[in-house]
Here is the input.
Amino acid sequence: MHYTKSELENLGDFYKNQLLNDTLPFWFPRSLDEEFGGYLLMRDHDGTLIDDDKAVWIQGRTAWLLATLYNTVEPRQEWLEGAKSGIEFLNKHCFDTDGRMFFHMARNGEPIRKRRYFFSETFAVIAHAAYAKASGDQEAAEKARSLFGKCIEYATTPGLLEPKFTSTRPAKGIGVPMILMNTAQQLRETIGDPRCDALIDQFIEEIERDFVKDDIQCVMEQVAPDGSIIDHIDGRTLNPGHAIEGAWFILHEAKHRNNDPRLIALGCKMLDYMWERGWDKEFGGIYYFRDVYGRPVQEYWQDMKFWWPHNEVIIATLLAYTLTQDKKYAKWHTLVHDWAYTHFHDQEQGEWFGYLHRDGSVAQTAKGNLFKGPFHLPRQEWYCAQLMQQLVGNTAETNILETEKQNF
Here is the structure.
C-alpha cells in the first residue's frame, strides 16, 4: 500500500485533533499544581489523582511539551505559563547539593529518591531550551547549555556517577547515546549549541558500531564495552520499542541533513530488524522484551504491550515512509496505528491506558505514574502532525505527493 495525498492530510488532521482535543485536555489544566508548582500527573483512567508525588523526569518532559507546543503549534499563553511552572519547580526543588537531580519528589518539593542515572537531567535540558525559545529567558538558555555539558561529563567520565553494577561484567546501554543524541537535537533546534553536530555524529557512530548487529539482524539493548554480546539474561534482553525509538532519532537526523542516504539506510535497518523481532504476529502490537536468541525472558511483563513503544513505532514507520516511499512502511504504520488506537485509546475519558496484556486487554487503568505522563503519546501526535504538515505543505520535499497512488 501507498498513502495518497488526501490520506496523508487526513493522518495529519487525525494526529493534530487527537493531540489538541483528546490527549491534552485529559492532562490540562487539572494537572497544574497551583500551590507548589509543577504538575500532578499520577492519574487514573478518569483523571482522578491516585498519588500527588512527582517524578522529576516527567516534570521536565511536561515542561518541554508545553513550551514546544507554544513554539510550534500556537503561542497560547496558558502553555507558556504552564511550562514556566514546571521550570520553576525543577530549579527550586529538584537539584541536589552536588548539582545532580533527584528522581522522585513529594508534592511540596521534598526529595524522596535519587537514581544513578542522569536522564532527569537530559529532560531538564530540553525543557529549559524549549522554554528559553518560547520566553526569551536567557537564564533558561544558559541553564540548558550548562546542564547539557554536565550530561556529557556524566556520560564520558568513568567513576563520576556511582555505578549500578560491580566491575565483574562491565556493560553499556544504548539508552545513553540515544537520549543524548535526541537531547542534542532538541537543543540545536531550539536555542542552538555549537557542540551538537559533532556529538550527534559521535552518538550515531557508537550506536552503529556497537549496538547494531547485522549478522543476526538485531539492535542490542546493552553490550560489553567493546560492543560484544554478553551471553547472560540481562545482556540478551532486547527492548524492540526502545531500539525503534533510536531508529527514528537517526531518521530525524537524516531528514535534518537533507535526507542523508546513509542515515536513512541505518535508521530503516534498525526499524526493520526490530519490527521483525518486536511485532506480535498472533495478537498484534509490540512485545516489551525479547531474547536475542529466542530464549525465555526473565521479566514477567515481557509479552505485555506498553503504551510508549507503540508511540515510538508510530513515529518511526511514518517517518521511514516519508523518507523512502517504501510501501512496507506505510503498511506497518497502518498496522501499528490501528492496533494502538483500538486498544490503548480510551474513547470515553481520552488519553491512552498505559499497560495491556498480550491480547490487548487492559491490565490496569492508570494513565499517569512515576513512569507515564504527558510525553510519549503527545510527542508522537505532535511529531506526526508536524511531519504531515511539512510534507503536504512542501510538495518539492517528496515525490509522494506528485502522483496520487492507489492502495492495494
